[in-house]
Amino acid sequence: MQSALNQFRISIQRVRDLIALHNSVKAQATAALDISDILRSALVLSVSALDYYIHEVVTLGMLEIHRGTRPEPAVPRNSTQSSFSRFQVSLGSAREDRKIAIDIASWIESEIQQSYGDDFLQQSHNISHLIPVISNSILNQLNNTSWLEAEIRETLSYKSFQEPEKIAEAMRYISTAKLWLEVANKIGKPDKEIKQQLKLIVDRRNKIAHEADIDPTFSLGNRWDIDESMVNDAVDFIEQVVESIHRIL
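The structure corresponding to this sequence follows.
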């Protein structure tokens, strides 16, 4: 899941580069030139980086659970299944795995033929020799999770993971951690304060993305104030949150 964090760090650096570009242009331009939209873009991109990270880390975590390299989250007290187990996939996508299970003998023969050649199949082998060969073939098939990855990405693509509650909901697919309490411990602030701060950032992002950042209490065309200090604080905070979440996982 490290790749999810690596991509987030790249995205955040791009945001910081955008803020630096704003500051450079501001230092050389006159006050008549309004370049505040560069900051608005940076704020939107920082929330986007958070959203992408959550999508990616949950997808990769679920694939690890499926492969058996990560433990499945514990079943909550008020349920009979974990969030991971309740995740739904289409029968159409699982069809190939079902075909293999139905005709396992033919599949094993085909896999061994591809991996070891016809000569191997023509020879006599004792069971102790065949077990690791068959085991490797089955393990390789289990690790081929392209259909499941496509299902997870398709399902999650309709969801937004920006609000604290939605992020916690997504994380329950791969972890039983009390997310915001643990993030709070790592950042050193109360969890309510952290969630509120994130909500305010996301709310401002929504104003920019969906309302053109227009302040309706003033005259036509006026927008909510924004400055580099405000955006830098938001970017720093989002970075803290993501880095803390990743350490918890």
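The first helix runs from residue 2 to 28.
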